[in-house]
Amino acid sequence: MRYNFDEINDRSNTNSLKWDIKPNEFPMWVADMDFKTAPAITEAIQKRAATGIYGYNTIPDTWRSAITGWWQRRHHFQMNKDWLIFCTGVVPAITCAVKRMTNVGDFVLVQTPVYNAFFNSIENHGRHVLENELLYDGKSYRINFEDLEEKLSHPLTTMMILCNPQNPVGTIWSREELEKIGILCARYHVTVVADEIHCDITEPGKEYIPFASVSDVCRDNSITCISATKAFNIAGIQTAAVVIPSEKIFQKMERGLNSEEVAEPNTFAIDTVIAAFTEGADWLDELCTYFSENKKVVTNYIEKNIPDLKVVPSDATYLLWIDAGKLSQDAEELCTFLRKKTGLYLLSGNHYRGNADQFIRMNIACPKSQVEAAMEMLKEGIEAYRQQNRKDAEK
Question: What is the CATH number of the domain that holds 372?
Fold first, then answer.
């Protein structure tokens, strides 16, 4: 491999959200990586920093060309450059969409378990979360379309936030599933906001399908939020794009994003994206292969050494969704115990609502040696938790 993803990068004393922890702890919770970004991005940042001047910035056509070119080559979707609006992040874009495209008191549908920031974007602004719980059969997840249609048909349901690929379960939705969602939302006049931030982190040979690419119906009733930040580990740069083919929706969102003051790029936000999407493909391909190997390490270790846990197979993201139902129906309690006992910091499924109380989310975007060490910590913690349960039962 050309790139050294085995390198240990010390992130202590860097004001890192992920690593703002106690000295004996190891964080596998928040979704950022412990790898340095692609060399082309570092070079672009250094070149811009070397100017010594960090004033206001415009958005050049090369930014639009970099994005549309990447989606054409990588995802076989021909975007129009005029569909793009710069935004500082996917979550601000989703929040803006909720505020501009729905009314106070409306229902916004989400498919749980799902990324918890969606709930904040909805509930912090006087709207109500309407859950279409994904069906789990002990092995994988699927959409409950009967329940979905019933809830989309409610007169107060005006928006659906679609997570594609799905975070935290790692499912890539099929063309048929996306088409069916698009038809139902159009039928009941529900605008689709597609969060596709994890789209570039897929298993080798697997490909995600952009919601807006599926049909004219999906294209003309959608707001798609995309970013290089997850795939290239540049979340701190605060850069994203909103893709809106419909002129009517575009005008509302453009005004909203500007009114919310989230449509102006910082000094590095444009150059990093151009570098990522024009020069970062080889780096990303190797990274996705590395993630695949890390997933195998965790899955094989758990199958052999921790039979009370089960990794849910996934085709996207560097996040693993682990079923702890044999051991506990309260993942929050389990994760708190593991962190206190071993220092392993995981995120409980409770944050994602739906039927997720027995699940744990694990971020494996770190060197293989750290993943292997974390597995030993997990085994130690689960054994201690099991012993504690036995003692409690004997009292």
Answer: 3.90.1150.10
Express each pLDDT in 109-136 by its tens digit: 999 999 999 999 999 999 999 999 999 9
Asked whether residue 273 is domain-assigned, the answer is yes
The CATH number given to whatever domain includes residue 132 is: 3.40.640.10
Residues 6 or more apart whose Cβ sits within 8 Å of residue 198: 165, 167, 230, 316, 317
Q: Distance between CA atoms of 108 and 98, rounded to whole angstroms?
A: 8
Q: Are strands 84-87 and 240-243 parallel, antiparallel or unpaired?
A: antiparallel
Q: Number of structural domains, the chain? A: 2
**What is the pTM (predicted TM-score) of this model?**
0.97
What number of other Cβ atoms are within 10 A of residue 279's Cβ? Answer: 16
Which range marks the domain in which residue 314 is found? 26-39+281-394
Q: Are strands 141-142 and 135-136 parallel, antiparallel or unpaired?
A: antiparallel
Burial of 128 by CB count in 10 Å (0-12 exposed, 13-18 middle, 19+ buried)? middle
